[in-house]
Amino acid sequence: MTLWYRVLICIAVPFVFIYLWLRGRKAPAYRQHWRQRLALQSFPMQARDGILIHCVSVGETIAARGFIERILQQYPQLPVTLTSMTPTARSLAQQLFGERVFHAYLPLDTAGAMRRFFNKLVPRLVIILETELWPNLLRTADHQQIPVLVVNARLSERSAKSYQKYAWLIGPIWQHISWIAAQTEPSQQRFIHLGMPADKVAVRGNLKFDFQISEALQQQAQQWGTQLQRPVVVAASTHEGEDEQILDAFAQLLTQQPDCLLILVPRHPERFQTVTQLAQRQFKVVTRSSQQQVTAQHQVLVGDTMGELLLWYQVADVAFVGGSLIERGGHNPLEPVATSTAVVSGPHVFNFAEIFSRLEAVGAVKLVTHAEALAQAWQQLIAQPQLREQMVAAASAEFARDQGATAVMLTDVEAHLPPSTSLVRTLTMMQRLSPKPGLEYWYDAQALPDFNAEFFSADYWAQQNKVKGSATGRATAWFIEHGEQGMLLRHYYRGGLVGKLNKDRFKREPIETSRAMAEFSLLLKLRELGLPVPQPLAAKFERAPGWGYRADILVAIIPGAKDVFQRLQQASLTAPEWYRLGAAIKQLHQQQVYHSDLNCHNLMLDNAGKAWIVDFDKCEFRQPGEWQQANLERLLRSFNKEVKKAEEAGSVFHWQQARDWPLLLAGYQQDQEDPAVT
């Protein structure tokens, strides 16, 4: 991404809001939820750390419906957030999925808005439908090491030329994408030509071939057919400049088929009223939103509701797919194919050129260039049911072998997520509490059903005689007894020279990425991966007067565990214990977890000899690199440092590098069996 892009996108923001305001004159929904356009809203805790799926508009949302349903089934432990760019897509998503997913607008692609969005939502995976690629989104996801999958991706020759032409502006966006599931081989080759690594692109087919018409919709369509008992044509997803031609064609059709009904479905909701008024000039019209029954006197039904297009295709005998009598590029013909409806289209179908080419090759579509030809096509197909059946059968046979894209794209998702069987939905019971601005708590409502703000006060626990011990390091951490739940209360302090001047204030940053909340969130992910880390119970963010913030965290005590430093003050560790410590560190590194302060105080062994790793302040996921070796070297220095300190103090620290370090490395390298077994 270039400086020019960052500058231009920021300049564009005011004009985008002007556009939304102007468009809101006809469609008031464009004037709503503006805070979401800049990622200024808050998300519930339960939306964090899940899967983000972006469907820019209605078409992508409909195409992805089955795919999203499968993800919801396969990953019930994870929240799914569905984003869009248009009110119609947002409304449709809410209608299709309800409260099973979280809904939001994808923010405008400024660096600040995308950073806020990802910091608040912290998705573990981003899935983009088709080719809605925004440089700041991709860059932010890559910076936070969040995989980005582009699925059902199509790239026309025209779009590829545009990406190539403006590469100087958007920068090397392809290096930020983890995987592309292309619809076709030509699209795959265009992605590779633009710079996407060949081993990260595969042809997976088109989700739109996997349309499944529900039994409920079929029954509803059958009821309509029984009620109407007349020929029905549908003109779907129509645009300005096209409706007049369609109504003219329908007027000609009525001279031959006077009992025919036209279902007219404009593409954009803000045009519903305009199209209704246009139809009323010539015909007797009823609107779907009025809920009036369609009678024999009605000639036109305006489909002015969202999410019912498949129903109208199923009801109709013949379908005209809009956006094609004008140079819009046409819309998806696979929807009427899925409902076994004969297809008619205008000549401008470059958005779906390959699909229309295949339909034309097998005689499964009629292409018309003007109103008179459209009227003739409608009349012919209504008068010849056998021809309709032949077209429907040809279309079905042509695309039967293309089904299965949903299943294979799910394997791509699985490759970028832990196995669904290993995931434990740790955020399900998490709550956030914000008594006042600048003060926020996150807590596990299941583990701490009686949580209150005083849980972060050591004095509160001392007054109840619940403080059972403390650990010293940079500062004191308190061991607290609370029912069956032992807890460790830790306040965050500054270290080094800065800590002498500023004890515990940190530079102001978003609450979601502050020290305690970041460690809290990371521990949740690590536990879902089955790593040997403590359970986080609660985190606190408090804005400090004047400047900065302070933070605290509560984590569960690991029963019977002592840190390695304490153990080595008393006696040497056994070979199996060293091996398990090395193996635990290896587990972290295999999951690409960087521990910022790996030392003998943060390694623990419980009564059963199991190794644990604690204190994940300032830790994170990282791509494999030299930091893994640096982690080990830091740990080695900590052992030798404690030996030296013990010698200076005249005490004993039971560590010998020549004896103990190879045992730990053997566990890390896992080049032999656990000594406890052998």
From TrEMBL:
From the Swiss-Prot or TrEMBL record, give the protein name: 3-deoxy-D-manno-octulosonic acid kinase
TM helices/strands, residue ranges: 6-22
The UniProt entry's GO biological process terms, in alphabetical order, are: lipid A biosynthetic process; lipopolysaccharide core region biosynthetic process
Q: What does this protein do?
A: Catalyzes the ATP-dependent phosphorylation of the 3-deoxy-D-manno-octulosonic acid (Kdo) residue in Kdo-lipid IV(A) at the 4-OH position.
Q: Name one Pfam family in it.
A: Kdo
Mode of membrane association: Peripheral membrane protein; Single-pass membrane protein
- Organism equals Pseudidiomarina maritima
The record lists the lineage as: Bacteria, Pseudomonadati, Pseudomonadota, Gammaproteobacteria, Alteromonadales
Q: What is its main location?
A: membrane
Q: Which gene encodes it?
A: kdkA
The site (Transition state stabilizer) lies at: E130, K208
Q: Where in the cell is it found?
A: Cell inner membrane
